[in-house]
Every structure is written in structure tokens, then in C-alpha cells.
Amino acid sequence: MVTLKGEHIFLRALEPEDLDFIHEVENNEAIWELSNTQTPYSRYLIKQYLDESHLDIYEVKQLRLVISDYDNNVIGLIDIFDFDFRNRKAGIGILITDEAKRAKGYGSEALSLLVNYCFNQLQLHQVYCNISEDNEASLKLFKNLEFQIIGLKKDWNLVHGVYKNEFLLQLINS
């Protein structure tokens, strides 16, 4: 049985009440390099996004879930993107927004739940992620869950006038 509930956290769908949280995350310039964002998002656009978040992953090719603890505190977000059912693959991204919860196992538990969902519910053959070469915490997180570095994209992202390399990591469902 596939579940999006773990020992300490669960993954849930976006709700209209998440508007302020999503607006804050999407407009936080400190993390724009993680999502290749270059401009702020209006509350109107985020509200539209939330209104459409119920659409099927097969239709919109993405899924964003909130990482929450059992006291209903929001810990972060986890995404499936570039969903390609024909080739049974998708990208994964994660952001622990609550800094006090970083490096405490929440990201690992959330990623584990999502990978299980991808492989067992969505029947994907593989998942992948793109991580900046200097993002040691994310590299450790994904490598600990058996993602393998399969490539290095040199000078891939221009961040504050400096080109950064980016790793491509992959996990194949065995």
C-alpha cells in the first residue's frame, strides 16, 4: 500500500489556506536560484495556481505537495515536475522552508515517501534531480537515498554573475 504518511511527517495536497506561504516562498529571492526563478509572482497568479492544483498529474505534468508534521506545522514543499508517463520518469525537487527543521531527517523522510509514491503509485521507472555543485546538503540528502550522480553540467546556471556547475542525479526503480 502506498502512503504519503511517515513516522514524523506527511505529504498533503495544496490548500487555498497555503496562499500566503506559497507567496512567501515563491518571492524569496534567496532561493530563486534553486528554481531558476527571475521575477516575483503576484498573489493573483499564485491563487490561480492553487485553484488549479487539484488537476491530475497526467494532465498538468507536475505535482506540488506540502511537507507537514503531525501538529500541522508546514515544514516545506516537495515537487514532481517534468512528469513523463510515456517514458515513466519525472524530476523531483524539495525545499525545507523551516530552517529549524533542516538536517533533522524530515527531508529524508519526505523524499523517501515521494520516491515510494513515484515508483509504486505512478509506476515510474526513474526519478531525477538537478543540484548545484555547491549545495552539499541536497547532494547528501539525495545520495543517502541512493540517487547516483550521472553527469555534471558545467557553467549551467548564472547566479549573481558567477556560473555554477550543476549535477544531474538519477534513481532507477529496481
Strand content: 35-45%
List low-confidence stretches: none
Q: What is the average of the pLDDT values? A: 89
Please outline the major beta sheet. Answer: 7 strands, mixed
Shape: globular
Instruction: List how many beta strands DSSP finds.
Output: 7
* Count of individual helical segments: 6
Give a structural overview.
The chain has a seven-stranded mixed β-sheet. It is built from six helices and seven strands, in the order E-H-H-H-H-E-E-E-H-E-H-E-E. With 174 residues, the chain is an alpha+beta fold.
Name a few traits of the molecule.
174 residues; alpha+beta; 7-stranded mixed beta sheet; 6 helices; globular
Could you give the topology of this structure?
Layout (H helix, E strand, L loop, with lengths): L8 E5 L5 H8 L5 H4 L7 H10 L4 H4 L2 E7 L4 E11 L4 E8 L9 H16 L4 E7 L3 H9 L3 E12 L2 E11 L2
Parallel strand pairs: 4-5
Antiparallel strand pairs: 1-2, 2-3, 3-4, 5-7, 6-7
Helix pairs in contact: 1-3
Condensed summary:
This protein is α+β, with helices and mostly antiparallel strands and about 170 residues long. The chain is built from six helices and seven strands.
